[in-house]
Amino acid sequence: MSRAGNVWDNSAMESFFSSLKIERTNRKVYRGRDEARADVFDYIERFYNPRRRHSKLGYLSPMEFEARAMLA
Questions:
Q1: Smallest Cα–Cα separation from 48: which of 21, 10, 8, 9?
Q2: CA gap 70, 27 in Å, rounded
Q3: Does residue 23 lie within any of the structural domains?
Q4: What is the pTM for the complete model shown?
Q5: Per residue in 22-58, pLDDT tens?
Q6: Residue 29 and residue 19: Cα distance in Å, rounded?
Q7: Exposure of 19 by Cβ count < 10 A (0-12 exposed, 13-18 middle, 19+ buried)?
Q8: Separation between Cα atoms, residue 42 and residue 30, nearest integer Å
Q9: How many domains does the chain have?
């Protein structure tokens, strides 16, 4: 971990949580912690990781990026 006041350490996680809130959990009411946990897991495993486009990958989804890498 770095010293206090280094704002760049958390930028990746802050970006992820912002996306999670905007795209999935904002304005949702969950009946319990298990329902919320399942919804967040679904978002990460079925949308964010495989299909969501990432700027670091040239605005391709990870699945598209890997498919192109295998062809090259």
A1: 21
A2: 40
A3: no
A4: 0.66
A5: 989 998 999 999 999 999 999 999 988 888 888 888 9
A6: 18
A7: middle
A8: 14
A9: 1
